[in-house]
Input
Amino acid sequence: MATPEKTKNDLSVKSKLITLIDYMPEEMRIKLLKFLEEKLNITVSEDLKIEKRGNNRRSCLIFVDYIIQGNAFKSYILDISAFGVFIETNEFFPVGHDISMTFSLPNHKKPFNLDGKIVWSGSQGFGAKFNYLPPRQKDLIKSFSEETEDIYDITS
Output
């Protein structure tokens, strides 16, 4: 749960960013937008919807053990691609921190032990980009993330 201090800091940072962006010339705003879209691997459409680009990301619920700055945590991966994961947490972790993760895919029980870096952080969790994936593990994660999910109709 967000603390009042964290919420106040978030608002202060957002307000400062908006002030700086308002002050920027249009040319610099465009460069900033392109930089952020590239860094976060997203596109903001004309109607202000965020669209993920590039690699398929699959929604999931995968248990993960992870270590950040020597502290161990347990949570769930809510989506995954061959480049990274989104991990649900109420904890705040700054961008740039290293992370070591251990998890198993539903279709492959042997655990993955991967290192990464936090590339964005929000109120519901953080995104971590894998530092390096051996080709076999990359293929397994890519294959899993590209599978279509079965949807079942429940009838009474």
Observations:
- The chain has a mean pLDDT of 83.
